[in-house]
Amino acid sequence: MVKQGFKQSQSDHTLFTKKRGDKITCLIIYLDDMIITGDDNEEIQSLRENLVKEFAMKDLGALKYFLGIKVLRSRHGIFLRQKKYVLDLLAETGLLECKPAETPMITNHGLKIEEGVDLADRERYQRLVGKLIYLSHTRPDITYAVGVVS
Fold it and tell me: What are the structural domain ranges in the chain?
């Protein structure tokens, strides 16, 4: 990608960008999946052609689903959803029947260890917090609560 004039992001090493004038092309790669986007149609077409020459690949068309995030388009914009991810997480934790809360956590609430109470399974707790962090990409309303528990 660097040979083709793209710059690798320092904050996300899977993201490559190329600017030409006031236009930009972005490529993000995760294992064997990639997303190409931007407003430079000429550069996007050139990138596709060069990638096909180098790699055996298939164009799946407009993005619909990526890393557990569903991409929906309407005349109002592009929307990201993780409904299946949420349902799987609720099933894993036994909370499928839970009721939604408008405010998932009281502001400035601190966590503390209570005497005489069994500690949670550390690995399971960390795994669930990691899943909640990933969920907060499309649910910024839970970011505060996830930050507290993490």
Answer: 2-60, 79-149
